[in-house]
Design brief:
Blueprint (H helix, E strand, L loop, with lengths): L4 E6 L3 E9 L5 E9 L14 E6 L6 H30 L8 H4 L2 E2 L8 E10 L16 E10 L1 E10 H10 L6 H20 L17 E3 L16 H18 L8 E4 L1 H9 L10 H8 L4 E4 L13 E5 L6 E4 L2 E5 L3 E3 L2 E10 L1 E4 L5 E5 L2
């Protein structure tokens, strides 16, 4: 081991400690610590707080300096862990009002997140009764017909991360780590789940509300100005009739088994009926008039209904909102995993699982196009 030399110089106002370590190849590594303090006798100047500045230059051949670097890394990891805990806590609190798939649709979280598929059963009763004679043996048979349907569950993944230098720079400057990266991860997840809720994903075998098989779809009457269906060309009475058709057809299609309790509209149409008076003789809007006559129906807007119909038509949907009728399957909500070191970066993977929308009773909904 090469000889080691140390030089120490001390003064009243300046302290400098310099340790110079040299190996046989004349490689040098410096650890320099400087501490400054003001002399109390200098013309009444106020005493200043000590300023500490540590400069570490690593040399892989010096074991003691490696240990010093490991200690510094440990401090950075501790800082990063505290910052990450705060960032993830904030991320889980974020809400995106425009993404309504998980709020206006019942969400089913009962399926185990480890499952690759899920199966649901639908049943129908068949048979009839008749008047029989005494000692009759030809009794009509009644039975239950069951059908099983299996659907896939898909994982949704994304990640965010910080370089080692970003973590050290934040620690050095006493600044929090960048929050927007974690936010964008959560938003990307929620946007995809919301898109699946409405439109599904044909490539991965997932259905959405708007493309689910056997849900009734039809146009509203084309008796607007010029024989059109759009509400901007219709009278308030015609618009109210269209809204009532959407909900009453569920009642008639199911012979009163289901009754609509939710009506969803595109933003533009919702805004129009909420500000347009029902007639020239009242300040009551079309929306208020409808709600007064249908007190059990919640009316709301959804961005994804604009242009969602055939040939880009705007649609409204009415349905009997109940988890026994339909659900958005989310076995695993958004979650984050422990940080992972990848090269000179710390990566935080995030994950969720979704099975799309399932209708156990497709006639509990009704889609009207052309509004």
């Amino acid at each position: 081991m090469a000889a080691m030399t140390c030089q120490i110089s001390i003064s009243l106002s300046f302290l400098s400690i310099r340790i110079c370590a040299c190996d046989r190849r004349s490689q040098k590594t410096f650890i320099e610590t400087k501490a400054f303090s003001a002399n109390a006798s200098l013309r009444g100047k106020k005493r200043m707080n000590e300023n500490l500045s540590n400069v570490v230059k690593l040399d892989s051949t010096c074991e003691n300096l490696i240990r010093s670097q490991v200690r510094n890394d440990g401090e950075s990891v501790g800082f990063f862990s505290r910052q990450l805990e705060q960032i993830l806590a904030r991320t889980y609190d974020i809400k995106y009002p425009a993404l309504k798939g998980t709020t206006v649709l019942p969400v089913d979280t009962s399926i185990n997140t480890g499952a690759k598929t899920f199966t649901f059963r639908t049943y129908d009763s068949v048979g009839a009764s008749k008047i029989i004679a005494d000692y009759s043996q030809d009794l009509p048979r009644c039975d239950i017909l069951g059908k099983e349907t299996t659907r896939p569950l898909r994982s949704i993944g994304q990640s965010f991360g910080y370089s080692i230098q970003e973590i050290r720079a934040a620690q050095f400057g006493g600044l929090p780590l960048e929050q927007r990266r974690a936010n964008s991860c959560r938003q990307a997840n929620d946007q995809l789940v919301n898109r699946i809720a409405w439109s599904g994903d044909a490539e991965y075998g997932l259905y959405g509300f708007l493309n689910y098989p056997n849900v009734p779809v039809s146009d509203v009457p084309n008796d607007g100005t010029g024989g059109t269906t759009e509400w901007v060309n219709k009278t308030p009475e015609q618009i109210l009739r269209d809204m009532n058709l959407a909900v009453t057809e569920i009642l008639t299609n199911t012979k009163a088994v289901h009754n609509a309790n939710t009506l969803l509209l595109p933003v533009e149409q919702y805004a129009y009926i909420s500000r347009t008076p029902y007639s020239n003789f009242t300040a009551t809007t079309i929306l208020q008039f409808f709600q007064q006559n249908n007190p059990g129906i919640m009316v709301d807007w959804v961005n994804e209904l604009k242009g969602a119909g055939t040939a880009g038509k705007d649609v409204m949907i009415a349905y009997d909102k109940n988890i026994d009728n339909q659900s958005l399957v989310i076995p695993q909500a958004f979650e984050s995993f422990p940080p992972q070191a990848r090269g000179l970066e710390i990566v935080i993977p995030t994950h969720s699982r979704c099975g799309g929308v399932v209708f156990y009773y497709p006639f509990s909904a009704n889609i009207k196009e052309g509004i």
